[in-house]
Structure formats: structure tokens, C-alpha cells
Amino acid sequence: MHSEPDARRVDQPRPEDRWGAATCYSGSPGVAFVLLVHAEATPYAEWFSSLMRPDIGGSCCGETDQVYADEYWADGDGFVARVGSEKIAVPGKKVIWTRINPTGRGVLFYRHFNSGDYVYCFVPGSGV
């Protein structure tokens, strides 16, 4: 069946509806920032945006802060995740154990600052 090039299925959002906001908390009292995140960039966008930080609550931020770990291993009560050539320490309090991970891969939400890496959340690839 042929459809018009600009035809969209009813369940597909319009491009102007694909942006949303995610509020991220820095961990410092009273410091927060808002990120515009693209709602349909990956098949897991809704799942990414539904994740909540296990230590202080609030969003894990979203896809803009998300990377897949190339590999990860247990380290004390947390993990060490390797992303490219960088090794990132993931404290146990940042690990989400209560959500099934549909990606099948270790998912890390973090930001790199001049003072070091800040981990928001980590979801092991094994799920719950």
C-alpha cells in the first residue's frame, strides 16, 4: 500500500509534540536544572524517562544523560562501568534493582563535570 510521504499513523506524535522537559537535581540542596529531552529518539524513551533515582528520588534525567555501558562489574556494593576508555564508579545507592531493564544492557545515567563524574542512576542489564 502506498501512502503520502508526510502521512503519519494516528499513534505517531507530531514532531512538535516530541519534546518534553525533565527536571534533574544535582544532589546539592536547592540546585536543579531543566533539560529538554526528545521523547521519541529511541524505542526505550518512555522507559528511560520513567526511571527514578533510588537514593534521593526525582528523575534519572533522560536520554541526554544515558549511555550504555560497554561492560560493568561488581565493586563493593556498587559497580564499575566502562564507557569507551573511561571507567565510572557507580555507588550502590545509585543502582536501580526494582525495574526490569528491557534493553538487556547496563544503562548508566551520568554527567561529566570538571570536578568528576556524577552518577544519577545505573540499571544492570540483568533486570530486577
Overview of the structural elements:
By secondary structure, the chain is mainly beta. The protein has one domain. Helices cover 5% and strands 38% of the residues. It contains 1 helix and 8 strands; from the N terminus they run ββαββββββ. Strands 3-7-8 form a 3-stranded antiparallel sheet, with no helix packed on it. A 3-stranded antiparallel sheet has the order 4-5-6, with no helix packed on it. A two-stranded antiparallel sheet has the order 1-2. The longest helix has 6 residues, at 45-50. The termini are far apart.
Quick check: average pLDDT? 75
Helical element count? Answer: 1
Instruction: Compute the number of strand runs.
Output: 8
Oligomeric state of shown chains:
single chain
Strand order of the largest sheet: 3-7-8
Biggest sheet details:
3 strands, antiparallel
Helix/strand-derived class?
A: mainly beta
Which sequence of SSEs, written as H and E, runs from N to C?
EEHEEEEEE
For the structure shown, list the relevant keywords:
disordered N terminus, three-stranded antiparallel β-sheet, mainly beta, single chain, 128 residues
SSE map:
Elements: E1 19-25, E2 32-38, H1 45-50, E3 66-68, E4 71-75, E5 78-83, E6 86-90, E7 107-113, E8 116-123
Antiparallel strand pairs: 1-2, 3-7, 4-5, 5-6, 7-8
In short:
By secondary structure, the chain is mainly beta. Helix content is 5%, strand content 38%.
